[in-house]
Amino acid sequence: MKNITTIGRILFAVPFALFGINHFIMMDYYLGMLTSFIPLGPYTIILTGIMLIAASISIISKKYVKFSTLLLAALLFIFIVTIHIPQLISNDDKTIIVFALLKDISLLGGSLIIAGIYSDEEADKTKIN
C-alpha cells in the first residue's frame, strides 16, 4: 500500500513543478491572465512559479509536506478567487474556464488531503516517541 501512496504523491507533485517552469517559459500568457488588482505583474508570476516548484520538490522529497501543501492549497484558492471567478464573470465562452476552475478545485482538495495525511503521520510519530 505504501508504494501506491508514494506513486500518488509523486504523480500529484510533478505537474506542479511543470506548472512552475511554465510560469517562466510562458510569462506573457500569464501576464494576460492577471487581473488589475494583482500587484507587481511579472514578479507575481515569477514568485508563483518558484512557489509551485518548491511545493513540488517538498512533496516529492517528503520535507515540510504539511506546510507546503497548505501553502499550495492557499495558492490554488487565490487562483480560483482572483483568476478563474473573474474570468467566469467576464467571458462569454465559459467552457474552458469552468474546466480550469474545476481542475484547481480538485487540486486544492488533493493538497488538503495530503496535508491532512502528513499531519496525522506527524501526530502518530510524536505518540510513538
How would you describe this structure to a colleague?
By secondary structure, this protein is mainly alpha-helical. The chain has one domain. 86% of the residues lie in helices and 0% in strands. The protein is built from five helices and no strands. It is globular. The two termini are 24 Å apart. The mean pLDDT is 88.
Key attributes of the depicted protein:
single chain, 5 helices, 129 residues, mainly alpha
Radius of gyration (Å): 16 Å
Secondary-structure element sequence? HHHHH
| Secondary structure: helix percent | over 70%
- Provide the residue-averaged pLDDT: 88
Amino- and carboxy-terminal Cα gap: 24 Å
**Alpha plus pi helix count:** 5
Oligomeric form of this entry?
single chain
Number of E-type strands? 0
Beta strand %: under 5%
Q: How many individual domains?
A: 1
Q: pLDDT under 50 segments (min length 5)?
A: none
Structural class: mainly alpha
- Morphology: globular
> What is the makeup of the main sheet?
none
Quick overview:
The protein is mainly α and 129 residues long.
Strand and helix layout:
Blueprint: H1 2-25, H2 27-33, H3 42-61, H4 65-90, H5 95-128
